[in-house]
Amino acid sequence: MFNGFVTLNWIVGGCFAVIIYLVYYNTQATSIAAFQASRLTPSTFLIKEYDDIYSEHPHIYAKIIPSANTILVIDTGCGGAKHNAKVKVKSLRQFIESFKIEDNDGLPLNDRGAMDYVVVLTHCHYDHICTCISRYYVGILTIFTSGG
Predict the structure, then answer these.
(1) Is the pLDDT of residue 113 over 80?
(2) DSSP symbol at 33
(3) Across all residues in the chain, what is the average pLDDT?
(4) Which spans in the chain are helix H?
(5) Domain locations along the chain
(6) Contacts of 20 (CB under 8 A, 6+ apart)
(7) What is the DSSP letter of 107?
(8) Beta-carbon neighbour count of residue 114 at 10 Å?
(9) What are phi and psi of 47, to 5 degrees?
(10) pLDDT, tens digit, 9 for 90 and up, residues 79-110
């Protein structure tokens, strides 16, 4: 009887642990992002947009400047339009503010939008500006563009 009771407690406890895990499980683990980020220097990250419908695979750079409470974003990519319907994180801003980056000690680059944005567009091709012209950045940033 004692062994059965202990076994039952282990089963119930294990089921409870699984339920808690599923309830609080981070949705990022099941979300596929349109972007991947890797550290280039202590404060600079390369964000690659992949599987875009234009097959451009643009490179986006993010420089974290804590002393100015700012994240500098250079170019903004294609705007999240993807071939893969399973891609859930299509917003560059959502990716930067909420997606955990392994090369950033498992933290988002701009956790919950704590820092201000400055965006620099190197030139006006769609694979550099499409995310910027979307509603995701309206009212929260300073934008600089080239003259040509």
Answers:
(1) yes
(2) E
(3) 76
(4) 2-24, 92-98, 126-129
(5) 1-30, 32-145
(6) none
(7) B
(8) 10
(9) -110, 120
(10) 777 778 888 888 888 999 999 999 999 999 99
Task: Give the total residue count for the chain.
Answer: 148
CA distance linking residue 21 with residue 29, whole number of Å: 12
Quickly count: other Cβ atoms within 10 Å of residue 59's Cβ.
14
CA–CA dist 122, 83 (Å, integer): 26
Nearest residue to 72 (alpha-carbon basis) of 144, 7, 146:
144
Alpha carbon of residue 35 to chain centroid:
7
* Two structure tokens written together for 68: 């100015």
pLDDT tens-digit series, residues 29-50 = 457 888 999 999 999 999 998 8
Cα distance between residue 77 and residue 52, in whole Å = 9
Structure tokens at 98: 């909420």
Token readout for 56 is 């451009």
- Tokens standing for 16? 């409870």
Q: CA-CA distance, 65 to 63, in Å (whole number)? A: 6
pTM for the full model? 0.71
Q: Which residue matches tokens 């890797």?
A: 38
